[in-house]
């Protein structure tokens, strides 16, 4: 079985330049955004979020090639080894950081754009048992905090920020911050506060707090 997996990965990466370029972009993203990553080799050999993402890329390639039993078998193995559950049909862009990654769940029809950062225990799920296009669409540059749950065929706009532990059930506009359960826009629905940075790159999880609450410990 190990030999089969080795040959599968070797063939996939050696014949698909898009796969290789996505891996390089992911590697650079992890090194740039995670201060705990001490080197590229550290990420390449030991970062399970990075490794799970690359394994998913192979599973997705198998899926779109209609080799679906093998794609699902690889998906199951990824979940067992890395505690990351990404359906092989899910589409993931380049420059992705799965920080810590434990407990991440990404549904079948979910789409993740380029340059996105996602922390542990994030769910991109459906809202029931209906089929069809039923999972979130995450635009470029989005940051999703730890434990956030985003459900349904909704859009998280470009450069948006989802606070840790939030439950998001409706669209989030570009360059805004959604926080809470149920999630609300910082600054209000009518005139939400907008940021100019790219949250996925800045990894800024807390700058919204002064606008969100006067609670002080």
From TrEMBL:
Cellular component annotations (GO), alphabetically ordered: cytoplasm
Gene3D superfamilies attached to this UniProt entry: Hexapeptide repeat proteins, serine acetyltransferase, domain 1
Gene Ontology MF term list: serine O-acetyltransferase activity
A GO BP annotation: cysteine biosynthetic process from serine
One Pfam short name: SATase_N
Enzyme Commission code(s) on record: 2.3.1.30
Family membership: Belongs to the transferase hexapeptide repeat family.
Protein name: serine O-acetyltransferase
Organism whose genome encodes this protein: Papaver somniferum
